[in-house]
Amino acid sequence: MGVSTEWIPAAEPFDGGSVLGFLGARAVEGVEEVKSGSYRRSVSLKNGAAVVSVRPEAAGVHVELDLAHGEDADEAVAVVRRVFDLDADPAAIEAVLSRDPLLAPLVRSRPGLRLPGAVNAFEAVVRAIVGQQISVAGARTVLGRMVARYGGWPAPEALAASDPSSFPFPRSRGQALVEVARLVASGDEITRDGLLAVPGIGPWTVSYVAMRALGDRDVFLPGDVGVRRALAALGGDADPGRWRPFRSYAVMHLWASL
Prior knowledge:
This protein has helices at about 15-25, 75-85, 90-95, 105-110, 120-130, 135-150, 155-160, 170-185, 190-195, 205-215, 225-235, 245-255, and strands at about 1-10, 30-35, 40-45, 50-55, 60-65.
């Protein structure tokens, strides 16, 4: 098929740099990288593999698509829109969050902050399960080992056939990972209720997946360590109800403040 380019506009302000920083801190070797102001990664699309490169600018993103099948172009663009949150309405989000005196300084300091999405819901679940109770850097290392083991980002079918004890984390977490993989491999969609029914997956993991992969822009993570630290540093009484319907963006502002 070869390489094609796209320009995808975003409503301004657009803080694409913050998305690059978020993705770069979590980039898994062998799958993705952030380099020279661009995010580049391999993705598996409906008809085959692709490599997507994204370079954000003030008003949108330049995208380079290297597709095995041209008919996957629309799907690849949809992935980019989701990962860089290009369909957000920053004016509406900031109008709500700026009304809270606690968040207003954070919103002013990071106009156009976006909510980085996931390539797909299954990848978000894998990242969330692996990242339970370890640092971002630690999760990145473990995921890199998994990519090396499976020869790329592991497909649901490959993880479904794996021994839960073979992963470099507790067996209970491995069992949860295998169970979700089996559900997806059998054709089930990832939903909040479906995830909560899997032993070993709790509310934080479900909320994180909903925020980054299921399109929920009103998720709050009250038990999240980073959220608690950020609120403590702000020194005010938080009322997350004032941040509806954009609590997911409030979480991003709190994380970014650290």
